[in-house]
């Protein structure tokens, strides 16, 4: 404490005005003593106090002046890129891959705000080599330190860069790293600090291998039985650029083009005579590499952020996760350029070397060197690689001496194994699996049941295990148990390599430790001897690293201090190996970790911290069930109301529904998924486990009104956060109405990937339908694309706009037939003899009557459906009985369901065609075919006739007539209110917003917020969505629906329509011309949570005065999905009597994805407390703690 007296003021003033040249220190002292009237002792005391004050202010101000905040804002999304000339989906950061280099100085704070725009996939970013001291939650390791960042969310990573050096960042979720989500971190030394080497310029270079197959396809193959290995990469990239031989495959120029500037060789421009520090890093998915510069030696000076005793190399061997700094002198002939090359080592070199240019200024950067690129080292000669590893020692001026002994030694045997027939990688015969709730949260919140509490093994059967041969017992087990380390103890890890499942094969494994650096004590060949080998440890000048190679049939010994509180991953840095279980987790000092931020939560049991509410919710549900059973006693015997429970596992699998092999989302191995069978009044419980690797999902129960359970509607961003990979949630709802319904994915465009199925709700026992039949069968109609949903969605959101095109096939109950001969495809990709694509068969008994429950879940197409030689009687639509009418062809639009009655009354000696055709669009897709099989004919016996032709695709007369023929059945009429309380007129248009193509309603394109509407409204989070009400109508007087709009621009909004509870609402859907002349499309609109009366439809512009007089108020059919015809209108009426938030949207996937929808809110204050399973994204994360 400083006594700020007048004497002190005089003292400080004198010091401030002190001119050193005029007044030496001795004179200054005399003047101070005279002016302050101090004694010598007082002067000394005051001087000491002033020095203390100076030191204090120095501590405050100097770091602030030097330690800066480095703030980055990133948008992560998929884009089409051609890094090696082959066009594919790449994950970019602000449009770049590799992403922006993070530049910081030792001591700085780095803040990276990451917005996930990946459509469907979650993400997490690891800051490779950053120790995250006091910020373990920012390590960016999904499943260990955080829940993943879901699409739409913005996650803030904040950490200190406490050490100068060369580091990296990359995706750490599934196998996303190899999709392009990575970049460099360059941390410079503090000002006035001199590094032990000199250079003029500094450059970062990332080396990667590159696959054309998506990470999803690779991961699906790895987790399949039989095992499908990822194979060798197609290219090697130097700073994101490589060159694939496009002529070596049957590829079109728009898919692979070597003249594309995106794949021009990467060039490092140098000034002759200057010295360059090249920070070389590897983030390969599989390959160990060599790196060389033609005609130049490289001096290694840094490894993983630590200075090394310099040594010279011609080839730098580098393994995935390692970073090095090398010095090069631009001292060669400056009249030419030189090759920069990287080659695969330690694996058969089936991948062409990566090439770049060392460009001597002022030569042109694209000028090829006059020589042939130098060849790389012999790929399987491990001697020079091991020699380099051993040559890396700490710089003599920067030695950090390790503890002389360890408190604990753990030996990790690395093996390839089998578990239940699946290939896995293991440590000590245990294949690592991540829990669905991250370890850091589990440990901090003491959720001990989340992962196994049985300690994993600390060694293996050293005496009997033969590391040189395939294991006699290759079977292993899985576990998510972790190693608990004593805080501040010293730990030795011995990594022991062994033979794989292939004879005479041992692989190189680069192991990376999060949150720490370790001393590399030694390497060796053969089996590690615990008694002998530790005597040869280097305890004098070992290098410290965070990533270290384990060579074939060898061992590597490391030592580290468990002095960083948290949960830290230690794993093989090869993507496929870690994905298959080659890793462990260490916990240390978890009690010293501060309060976890809510941003790391949102998955697994972090959604369920509100345990009191969870118990209350269960009690409430039991009471509601009891109440429901009581109230139904009058109408339905209590024995009739059952609980129908289903357990589903949702994952990607390779399937060939139309003979073309692609990734399909399956439920319990099936697509379409299992049919849900229930009876009116039953409670349906569906326990869903997400096994989609990195994608989230949500399932909508199409046609189920969700009365009392709006959170189970399954609409991502409207009623729930999507379900993250590894999560298990329970949808629970009442089947309150008999009829034909469906379920499907309702997140992004996942429905087109195969995640759908049928719901069949029958009447209670003793209640008869108004029509008779002998058998009941569900049939789903779909269109089918070979392009992935991510590929389609990325094209839709690109500039230039890339339309999804017409589907390749039409499927009947998940089966179709693509013409494999129309394109050049190998038989393992497209094979018409594959039984998966044999025609679907509807088997009938002659003379019997069948109820066919037909549903359409197409992504784009309106369809017709017919059965050769048979009439169909329409009896039900969207769960309501209709006045029967007969058709030859049933017109059906996406989201609609119908029941038709068919009599098997034709010649029973043959089979008949069941066909579906595209209508309302150019029919570029061939018809879908099935067989209507009369017993006892062979089911696959083709009919003797040509399949019947479909209707004229653009003749809307019959389509319109069918819509007008739909009326409520006599005896089952639900009379609508005679008038409405509110009328909304929705003009549906195609527009542009900032150059992007969109669909809009009243010139507003719907955006969904990152926090679901239901949660935002229930918890009064007004900043989540726009509060300006969207327009109730459009400029009907001046808008010309028959021509392209004069002003095609629109706006986007997250605003919703707030409806008064229990009011009656009319919605007029008005179609118009698209952005193409004389073109208007059919839009099937679906309303969640309600059924509506279809009051009428017409062609042309709706007239609010005249057309309302023609409304059918006598016997209108009730539906949940209705088509709006080209240049036409459809009028519907509903009652806003179901509390919640409900989507109303075009059911065509690209249209809703591009904004063609709205959301209605009614009576949200009447909704009970929301269950936590719907939370975990956006601002709902903050509701979990």
Account of the 3D structure:
With 1185 residues, the chain is mainly β. Among the domains are: 6-66, no CATH class; 69-391, Cupredoxins -  blue copper proteins (Immunoglobulin-like); 408-600, Cupredoxins -  blue copper proteins (Immunoglobulin-like); 982-1180, Sandwich (Immunoglobulin-like), CATH 2.60.40.420. Helix content is 11%, strand content 34%. It has twelve helices and 64 strands. The strands form 14 sheets. The protein has a six-stranded mixed β-sheet with strand order 10-9-12-17-14-15, with no helix packed on it. It has a six-stranded mixed β-sheet with strand order 21-20-25-30-27-28. α1 (6-16) runs antiparallel to α2. The radius of gyration is 35 Å and the shape is elongated.
